[in-house]
Design brief:
Elements lengths: L1 H45 L3
Length: 49
């Protein structure tokens, strides 16, 4: 049936977008971790926690 094909292609698109979003979040977390490492000594210098 045609609706099954449409549903399948929609599900594939959703899976692709979800995968890309997951990759983006992973990259954002890596960048945040790197920034935290660099900010650590600055926090010590400024008297941060």
């Amino acid at each position: 049936m045609p609706w099954q094909s449409d549903y399948r292609s929609f599900a594939d698109e959703v899976a692709e977008v979800t995968g890309r979003f997951g990759s983006f979040l992973g990259t954002a977390n890596e960048l945040a971790a790197k920034l935290r490492k660099k900010a650590g000594p600055l926090d010590d210098y400024l008297g941060g926690p």
